[in-house]
Structure formats: structure tokens, C-alpha cells
Amino acid sequence: MNKWEELDKKYIWHPFTQMKGWLENPQLVIDRGDGVRLYDTEGNEYLDAISSLWVNIHGHRRKEINDAIIAELDKVEHSTLLGLINEPSAELAEKLVEVTPAGLDKVFYSDDGSTAVEAAIKIAFQYWNYAGHPEKKDFINLGDSYHGDTVGAVSVGNVEVFHKAYKPLLFNTHRVSCPSFFHSKLGARSEQEFLQMLLQELEDYLKEHAQHTAAMIIEPLCQCAAGMLMQPKGYIRGVRELTKKYNVLLIVDEVAVGFGRTGRMFACNQEDVLPDMMCLSKGISAGYLPLGATLVTAEIFNAFLGEPTEYKTFFHGHSYTGNNLACAAGLASLKIFKDDDVIAGLPPKIEVIRQHFAHMQAAEFVGDARQCGMLGGIELMQDKGQKRPFDPALQMAAGICLNARKYGLIIRNIGDVIVFMPPLASTAGEIDEMLTRLTKSMEEIFAQFRGQNVKTFSDPCAF
Ligand SMILES: *Cc1c(COP(=O)(O)O)cnc(C)c1O
Q1: CB of 252 closer than 6 A to ligand 1?
Q2: Is 163 strand, coil or helix?
Q3: Which residue's CA is the nearest one to ligand 1's atom 11?
């Protein structure tokens, strides 16, 4: 155990981690990064197939972003947005309004995804007071949704394992069916029929309850933290049409799917959706520094205008709101998106993922290998025909992810779903290498499960 592992194990409580297992097992210490590679303190190299938990976009230590942060650091490290303006936050706000769907006109900064969602919830609630409908105060969310860990964000989420410990602390929401066809128990025979059932269910609820509903919150196209659950085409458009028809705000949480992950700049672009609010974080600073943003329409913003004594102020903000360095990183990231035409370069990379996933789908214990642009989820099942999961005690996906480290791959699971989310800057060759390494690890663990001798495959399509 080196010095840092000792210090870590002595002092740190890790996020989303059962610390007993952490303390009992050897852990990696990351020393440095370069492009899509990470290096541990022993000098071993790893491909970063989860973008350092979904945040990295243009690779590690990208010169343009490093330079932008250093340039800002030479001017000032932080200056508050309470009563003052700073240059990078003003410029980044202009650029965010430019790149997001037309109609989102104002930017409220916060520190991370949870706080971007928390701000959206409070804005929606307060907005209806000023819009003359104080009775509109409830929220609709999706089955198996995840929107962050602060108490409001947990309230609008419902990933059972994350949330059951906090139930008594949370406010109630109305939950509609999770829009994942693969997991659905609604009995639809086709994805098209499934879509119609989902929208019918939503409309039935809105007809009765829209008058006391403030907003519906969705993570569009792919519900990432719930296990990369994919929505049928037309779903977010349908939800937008219904929420508009029944006068309910639509909050779109693009914290994970935003900034190119789905193959377009934002998931909303895929179905030409203009939400009333959009929550951004993770990729916003290209994985450099914590930053969140909640974008709103002019209509929402204007409802909060008034005299000080009307107390229409949005009473919310954080010490580091609009931090100079984080905003400088965000600006540099958006410049790279433009200069390198990042989105236009994605299709060949997306195709490599598609090909690998098609082979994986044929594997005995892969129930579903699903993809949405640069986002992927590989769900393991003991009996894929019956959709029967593995015994959770086997920790199949976790075992595959840990085993992949010896092949030089950093990847993580959520339950028995392996999440694949490479930096957008990964080349097609690097993506091919990541999935080849994953396939090797997967086949090895599958072979162990079958009780066969462990074999190593050099061909990713070997099974
Ligand atoms: C990660 C995530 C959040 C929470 O963001 P944090 O920065 O971890 O607070 C919220 N919503 C979605 C969809 C996320 O993926």
C-alpha cells in the first residue's frame, strides 16, 4: 500500500461506496491523465471508458482548457456573482444560450448537477405563485429517475436502492411509468404501442391533475444513473406536447446526456424539443471543475421581476456561483466543440460502438446491449430469454469491471449494467480498444461463471 492509499483509507469516506469493502481491498491511486488515458502511481495505463464519471469530454489535460484556466487564474481565481459581474461567467452564459435550444434565454449558475436540479425545482414552484397559480405545486417524475443527491433532487428521483433510506425526508411526487421498453411490464407488443401507452398514461393524469401540477422533470432519451435506460423515439416530443397542452412546466435534466453524448449537442435537439428549463452540469466544464447551470425561458425569468419589497427574488445561490475558473473552462470547452467540429466527428465513433454492441448482444449472458449515440449500457442476465437477472450477490458486472483493470480499462457498473461512456475525444481506434478490452474481461468472467477454464480472447467477436 503506498502513502496515498494509506492516507485515503485512514481519512476518506468515498461517495456511493460501501466503505467496508473499500478498506478491505486494494485500490488504485490515479497519478495523472493524458488524453483518454489515466495512469496509476505504479505507472500502469488505463483507457478512461467512463469519462471520469461522465464529465470528461475532450480528454484529460487538454492544452486549450489548461491554458484558459491558467490565463484566468493570472487575473483572478474567484469573484462573487452576488452584486458583481465577472467576465467568464458573462461570456459563458451568452454561449450557453447560443448552443441550447432557442427560447432558453437566461442562465442561473450553481455548482453541480444536483444543485442545478434543486434550483429548477424551486424556480418552478415559485414561478407559479407569481404567474397567479399558487395551487400548482406538485411534480411529475419518471419511474427509475435520478436527478442528484440533495434532498429536493432525491425527491424527484426514484432509484429504489438510492432513495429508500431517505423516504421520510422527501416530498411526494407523481411517478409515471419508466419509459424503457426492455424493462416495461405494461405488456405492449411493440415500441410504438409502448410509446402510445406511456403518453396516454401521462395525459390521463394531466387531465385530472394538471391544475395542481407545477412541473414534470425528465432525463431525456437515456436515464443514465438508473442503468442506461433508453426511451422510445418520439417520447420526449410527446411529453413536451402534453405538458404544453396542460400548462405544466417541463424541466429537462441534461446533466449527463448534454454536451454531445447522444450524438447531438443536447438530447432535446434530437426531437426538436424546447423545454421550459434545462439543467446542465458534468460536461459543461469538460470535466475540469464543478459547475452547474439552470437555463430558463424569458417568461419564467420575467415572472420574478418586481420591486425589492415584493419579495419576488429567487432566494437561492451558492458561494461559488459563476466561479471564474470553472466558467473559463466551460468557455474553452465550447470553443473546442466549435473549432474541432466535435459533433460532426461523432458518427464513425458511434458506429464502432454499434458494431461491438451487436456482437456483445449475441453473448449468452448479455440481456441487452443498448446504445444512444456515445452512451452505452450492457445489461447482464443469467437467462436472457426469460429476462432473469443474476443473483445480485454474484456482483457479475462489478466483477467484469474490476477484472478489466488488468487489461488497462477503467469502467463502472450500476447493478448488473456496465456503463460505457467514453470521452467524445476518443478516436474510433481508442473506442475499439476499450470495447475489445471490456469484451475480454467479460468473456473471462462469463467463463468462470460457467465453471470452465478461464480463456483469453484476442478477438472481440469471439463469442
Ligand atoms: C450526475 C447527475 C446528476 C447529479 O449531478 P452531481 O454533479 O453529481 O450533483 C443529476 N442528474 C443527472 C441526470 C445526473 O446524471
Answers
A1: no
A2: helix
A3: 147
Does the pTM surpass 0.90? The reply is yes
Instruction: Give the amino acid at 107.
Output: V
Cβ 280 vs Cβ 313: under 8 Å:
no
Q: Is 112 in the pocket of ligand 1 (CB under 6 A)?
A: yes
Among 177, 343, 189, 195, which residue's Cα sits nearest to residue 260? 343
With a 6 Å cutoff on the Cβ, whether 219 touches ligand 1 is yes
Query: Distance between alpha carbon 42 and the CA centroid of its chain, in Å?
Result: 31
Distance from C-alpha of 328 to C-alpha of 68, rounded to nearest angstrom: 6
The pick from 222, 236, 282 for probing ligand 1's pocket by mutation, whose C-beta has the most ligand atoms within 8 angstroms, reads 282
User: 113, 5, 108, 105: which is closest to 54 by C-alpha?
Assistant: 113
Q: What is the pLDDT of residues 349-363, one digit of tens each?
A: 999 999 999 999 999
> HSE on the CB side for 140, CA within 13 Å?
30
pLDDT, one tens digit per residue, over 15-70 is: 999 999 999 999 999 999 999 999 999 999 999 999 999 999 999 999 999 999 99
